[in-house]
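Annotated sample (chain length 89).
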Amino acid sequence: MLKIAILIASVLVCIALVLCLWRLFKGPDMTDRILALDTLYINSIALIILLGLHHGSAMYYEGALLIAMLGFVSTAALSKYLLRGDIIE
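Output written by the structure step:
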């Protein structure tokens, strides 16, 4: 039962990834593209966590944590660049 639930959740997260990629390329604004990129890395974290549940390994959780940290920093940097035009003052 758990394997089927993980499979269904993985398919739905993959659909969400495709929709985020569509918004990333077709977004009308730069803010929409930054939000799509933010949602893209959150969905990839969810997919990695589901893969870790499927395989029963804790190594996937460390990879998801690494992606979460890099995604937060990149979103903050892109937002600061969008507001001020410069990342480092």
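Annotation: The CA atoms of residues 9 and 50 lie 8 Å apart.
Annotation: Helices lie at 2-26, 30-55, 59-84.
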